[in-house]
Description:
Elements: H1 3-24, E1 25-27, E2 35-37, H2 47-83, H3 98-103
Antiparallel strand pairs: 1-2
This protein binds zinc ion (ZN).
Amino acid sequence: MNSDIAKEALEKEKDALEKQLESVGVHNKAVPGDWITAQNTTPEEDPNLVADHTEEYDEKRATLAHLETRYNKVIAALNKIDSGNYGLCVVCQKPIEEDRLAVLPSAETCLTHKDN
Ligand SMILES: [Zn+2]
């Protein structure tokens, strides 16, 4: 796998993920790569509306956690490109299949050790 191509794909994914993260959360400037779920600041009198907002908040939090995980994997992959050990399975240290990296440039494991 040409790491320049992987880097380009990862940078693109990073930008896209940042946009999505910003739409559901607020970047925690103190911790790089950490986003806080944007809270609904308007107090609601109607208990039904409060319930709706709580559900919305939980949903946002779940989306945020999912995006954050992907984002951190992308960052980890970019760091690996910089340090020259990109594309190695974290379990067996063997090169990850090129087909797999082409589809998922932030893959951390080979096909044998993938967990999803
Ligand atoms: Zn492996």
